[in-house]
Amino acid sequence: MWVFEETLPNDPDLEHAVEDANMLVFVTPHQFIEGICKRLVGKIKGDVEAISLIKGMEVKTGGPCMISSLINKQLGVNCCVLMGANIGDELILQNGLYLLRWVGCQHLVLFVQIAMEKFSEETIGYREDKEVAQRWVQIFGTPYFRVSAVSIEGVELCGTLKNVVAIAAGFVDGLEMGNNAKVAIMRISFNEMKAFSKLMFPSVCDNTFLESCGIADLIITCLGGSNRKVADAFARSGGKRYFHELETELLQGQKLQGVKTTGEVYEVLCQRGWQQSFPLFQTVHVICTGHLPPSAITQQRLDEN
């Protein structure tokens, strides 16, 4: 059940807002999380449990760092993740769902909408303590919002990589290539997601990719959502408009995550010499940076299988 009360105060003071909290939910564009964590050091209780709904990664000189790991290292707290197949606009309308959203990374605004009770699902990824994960399942789960818990390896990375795939799907839509081409790109992308995840986390289970955080999230993100929408507009412009302009025009203040993630993934590929093993991920990045036209999304040698 959702336990956020209607009277939950809208507190613009981040440090004050968390001082008595024993469970923290992180929901913010991933480029801001490191600065937020620095502000929270020494400001939270020692027994706090955290969960991240953030898709993305930070690429350091020593390699990539997933957002939950960054929260864990900077704050010294156990951090689970919640990833899965849903479109935010539908979730906001579900059964009085109290959604906490960062606005300008300054404060939280509480959205309370009319009950609709549309069915959807998500996946919680946990590290070692399944009992903690089950507490999060009880908090987030409802009869029409099904939440399952699996080992964290691969869960967070699937939520990150699907935004790269959504950019590719948007290119296909914008070029009006049709559903056959779009499904082909999704299949190739799914294979690259699995291969990338297994290289990063060799212990990841194949079943993880069949959870809501895997194939289901990939499908829904390629059908709708902000990354697909903006990439569609980019392709229709022939790649002549800038992504930041389209973000401002189309997203009404929401921050686009997919384009930044393509750069982060490409940086990891270069660091580890994996470029040739992930031709689609590489092609999406090169298109986003303007070095290839959107039409290149189906013109490159994307799959050896």
Describe the protein's topology:
Elements: H1 14-18, E1 23-26, H2 33-40, E2 49-52, E3 57-60, E4 63-66, H3 67-75, E5 78-83, H4 88-92, E6 99-103, E7 107-111, E8 120-126, H5 130-140, E9 145-151, H6 155-174, H7 179-200, H8 212-223, H9 226-236, H10 243-251, H11 258-272, H12 279-288
Parallel strand pairs: 1-2, 2-5, 8-9
Antiparallel strand pairs: 3-4, 5-8, 6-7
Helix pairs in contact: 2-3, 6-7, 6-8, 6-9, 6-11, 6-12, 9-10, 11-12
EC number: 1.1.1.8
Domain Glycerol-3-phosphate dehydrogenase NAD-dependent N-terminal: 4-94
Protein name: Glycerol-3-phosphate dehydrogenase [NAD(+)]
- Full CATH superfamily name of the largest domain: NAD(P)-binding Rossmann-like Domain
Shape: globular
Strand order of the largest sheet: 1-2-5-8-9
Number of helices: 12
Output the helix-strand order. HEHEEEHEHEEEHEHHHHHHH
| Spatial separation of the terminal alpha carbons | 44 Å
Count of folded domains: 2
> How many whole angstroms does the radius of gyration measure?
19 Å
Global structural class: alpha/beta
Catalytic activity: sn-glycerol 3-phosphate + NAD(+) = dihydroxyacetone phosphate + NADH + H(+)
GO biological process, one term: carbohydrate metabolic process
Domain Glycerol-3-phosphate dehydrogenase NAD-dependent N-terminal: 4-94
GO molecular function: glycerol-3-phosphate dehydrogenase (NAD+) activity; NAD binding
